[in-house]
Every structure is written in structure tokens, then in C-alpha cells.
Amino acid sequence: MAQLASKFDATEHDTEQRDFEGLPNGIYEFEVEASEIVETGPEKDRTGNGMKYTANVREPEALAGRKFFGFINLENKNAQAQEIGQKELASMCRAIGITEVEDTEELHLQPFIVKIGMGKPSKKKDADGNPEYPAKSEIKKYFFPDEGNLPEPAIDENQPVKAANDNRAPAASDNKPAPAKAAAAGGKKRPWG
Fold first, then answer.
1. What is the per-residue pLDDT across 98-111, written as a single tens digit (0 to 9) for each?
2. Nearest Cα residue to 53 out of 181, 139, 177
3. Which of 10, 75, 86, 152 lies in the 20 to 30 Å Cα band around 95?
4. What are phi and psi of 97, to 5 degrees?
5. Which residues pair with residue 118 across a beta bridge?
6. Which residues contact 59 (CB under 8 A, 6 or more apart)?
7. pLDDT bucket at 177, cuts 50 / 70 / 90
């Protein structure tokens, strides 16, 4: 047992909980605040390594301080995965304005501009047939200062529509036969159907 210094009243505090939401689609100014190189693949069959990083939003001002969590494949048994990752690291370096890097800390606290959009959910499904990982915000494009066309950071007016959590029975227009359970239940109407 551990005695608190004073009596705590939970009713005096806000207990509203929010699900984590990715960044809205738009143009952002980021800066990498932390990074590390991690091995990839199952523990007994490593496939390579990659850079995990955390970037801070600098602009637009309304979202300043929000975090973006990214991963870039650096070395991989799959040549295509490695090529994609190395192109992304090269794009990040060019967006920052550096040509060579030996330590990921050289990328830290350097501003760069990106376009963020919603990615796709994982192809791998869980036991219920849902994607193992839901869609999340991802970098769609890096903007390069040497091209002289850096856009102003701003949130896009058009955002993807979130799917509603609709657990009702399928609509009659689905033209699907009624489940056998309903017939076996003596024709009772289900409260949700």
C-alpha cells in the first residue's frame, strides 16, 4: 500500500480521453528532434535496418509542437525496399540542404518542408479480416530549397472522410441472404437488425 500525500478527488479533473489522430493533410515545416537506427525483421531473421525518427511540426502555427513519427529503410534484403528507403533519405537530406550524412544527428533541428497525406492501411489482416494496421499520416513529398518553389505551410481544405464505426446489420439493399442464425432463432427479430 502507498499513502498519497493528500486525498485525491478524481471528480475535480477532466477525464475526457482522445484517440490519437494523425496530422491533417497539408504542407508542413518539420524538424527532426530524435532518431535511432533499429534492426528490422523478426528477431531470429533480421532483414536489415532503418532509421526511426520523431519530427516536430514547426508550421503551420495551429499545429506547432505536434509530433510526426517516421521510419526510413536504410538496408534491407529486399532490394526494392532498400532502394525506396534510400531515395527517401536522399530526399530528406536534399530538403534539409545537406549532401552527405554519417550520423543521423546531423539531420536534427534542421527545418524542411513536406506534404503530408493519408497512407493506406496494411494489406495484412487480423483474425477479424480488418487491416492489422490502420491508415496513418505519411510524407507524400519533400520540397527542395534548390528548386526555389517552397510552398507556405498550410492545412488542406479537403480532408479525407473518416469512416464511421457502423456496427448495424447490413442494409437490405446489400442483396445478401439472411444469416442462418436468424432462421434458427425462430424468426425473432434482432434488436440491432
1. 999 999 999 999 99
2. 139
3. 75
4. 105, 25
5. 137
6. 28, 29, 153
7. very low
Give the burial class of 73: count Cβ atoms within 10 A of its Cβ; 0-12 exposed, 13-18 middle, 19 or more buried. buried
Cell of 128: 477479424
Residue 17 banded pLDDT, cuts 50, 70, 90: low
Closest CA to 117 of 138, 142, 92, 143: 138
Greater confidence (170 vs 94) lies with 94
In the 3-class helix/strand/coil scheme, how is the chain assigned residue by residue? CCCCCCCCCHHHCCCCCCCCCCCCCEEEEEEEEEEEEEEECCCCCCCEEEEEEEEEEEECHHHCCCEEEEEEEEEECCHHHHHHHHHHHHHHHHHHCCCCCCCHHHHECCCEEEEEEECCCCCCECCCCCECCCCCEEEEEEECHHHCCCCCCEECCCCCCCCCCCCCCCCHHHCCCCCHHHHHCCCCCCCCC
The amino acid present at 125, given as its one-letter code, is K
User: How far, in Å, are 13, 22, 126 from residue 169 at the CA level?
Assistant: 38, 30, 21
Mean pLDDT of 115-136: 89
